[in-house]
Design brief:
It comes from Chlorocebus sabaeus. Belongs to the class I-like SAM-binding methyltransferase superfamily. RsmB/NOP family. InterPro entries: MeTrfase_RsmB-F_NOP2_cat, MeTrfase_RsmB-F_NOP2_dom, RCMT, SAM-dependent_MTases_sf. By secondary structure, this protein is an alpha/beta fold. It has a single domain, classed as Rossmann fold. Helix content is about 35%, strand content about 20%. The chain is built from 14 helices and 13 strands. The strands form 2 sheets. Strands 5, 6, 7, 8, 9, 10, 11, 12 and 13 form a 9-stranded mixed β-sheet that branches. A 4-stranded antiparallel β-sheet has the order 2-3-1-4, with helices on one face. Strand 11 and strand 12 form a beta hairpin. The radius of gyration is 19 Å and the shape is globular.
């Protein structure tokens, strides 16, 4: 089965690198990552080196595919090394590049698997979702992290928000493709400006995920329009302002004692560490949570770059571990009053 699926995906990796973006990244990331940038650049600019993890859908379990993955040498993510790893989540990955095609959306039929960058599961796992909790996925489209959250536990209420109308349609379709109707009934999908969510639903949620709009280094590198790419780069400096505003809204929406996870798929320090530092410096009721243990236990699957933060991890693409970029930070809201 796996060989047949893989054959259908041949020829889809030919992409054109945007020189404007690469030159910009060269200047920024050679400073921020040092020598590691040489390896990261080589992986990011070579789609044939990219790896894709296979997240199995527990609501329509693909037993035949799982057997094929084993035969092909795939192994399960973390392989039991991560504390509190949910037994209901099964994600397979290979040390070699390549991918199988995504399944087509068919009304009434649940998909059996979801293809993703394995590092994108780290924010989901950092959230440590428990059955019955109220959860907010503030910037939810295209829906991969919402799907992954539901592989971990069954929340009492899951609110998936997406401000962009086109991406909202994508989100709805993803949820319909993977989640059975009884569970769909506990999911609310909204199209609210995420910066207003905190005022709309103050202290409503036990857990909040902010997978923020960001530079998205992988996709930006292959921008087909150089003019648009140049415009994006000039707008890039405004992204931290949006990310900070989204986090402030998320903090308002989070109940005291609740957990907040922030993530991006960029290497940019300005959008990662600097955003979290600003939040910690301006909110006395937000505490950093140490997640360095994840890096220690997951080093066989991921390569991490130093962030200088106990609450922040940065996964960088590496040879044989071509996952990321993915930045993850974990925060907790205390019972004291914060300053805004």
């Amino acid at each position: 089965m796996l060989t047949r699926l893989k054959a259908k995906s041949e020829g889809k990796l030919a992409k054109q690198i945007c020189k404007v973006v690469l030159d910009h990244f060269e200047k920024q990331y050679s400073k921020e990552l040092g020598d590691a940038w040489n390896t990261v650049r080589k992986i990011l600019t070579s789609p044939s080196c990219w790896q894709y993890a296979v997240l199995l859908n527990r609501f329509n379990y693909p037993f035949e595919l799982e057997k094929d993955l084993h035969l092909k040498g795939y192994h399960t993510l973390f392989q039991g090394s991560l504390p509190n790893y949910p037994k209901s989540m099964k994600c397979y990955l290979s040390r070699t590049p390549g991918r199988i095609p995504s399944e087509r959306h068919q009304i009434g039929n649940l998909k059996k698997y979801y293809l993703l960058n394995a590092a994108s599961l780290l924010p989901v796992l950092a959230l440590e979702l428990r059955d019955g909790e109220k959860v907010l996925d503030l910037c939810a489209a295209p829906g991969g992290k919402s799907i992954a959250l539901l592989q971990c536990a069954c929340p009492g209420y899951l609110h998936c928000n997406e401000y962009d109308s086109l991406r909202l349609k994508w989100l709805r379709q993803t949820l319909e493709s993977f989640i059975p109707q009884p569970l769909i009934n506990v999911i609310e999908v909204s199209e609210l400006d995420g910066r207003k969510m905190g005022d709309a639903q103050p202290e409503m949620f036990d857990k909040v995920l902010v997978d923020a709009p960001c530079s998205n280094d992988r996709s930006w590198l292959f921008s087909s329009d150089s003019q648009k790419a140049s415009c994006r780069i000039s707008q890039r400096r405004n992204l931290p302002l949006l990310q900070i505003a989204l986090l402030r809204s998320a903090i308002k929406a989070l109940r005291p004692g609740g957990i907040l996870v922030y993530s991006t798929c960029t290497l940019s320090k300005a959008e990662n560490q600097d955003v979290i530092s600003e939040i910690l410096n301006s909110h006395s009721n937000i505490m950093p949570m140490d997640i360095k243990g994840i890096a220690r236990t997951c080093s066989h699957d991921f390569t991490f770059s130093p962030t200088g933060q106990e609450c922040g991890l940065l996964v960088i693409p590496d040879k044989g571990k071509a996952w990321g970029p993915m930045y993850v930070a974990k925060l907790k809201k205390s019972w004291s009053t914060g300053k805004w």
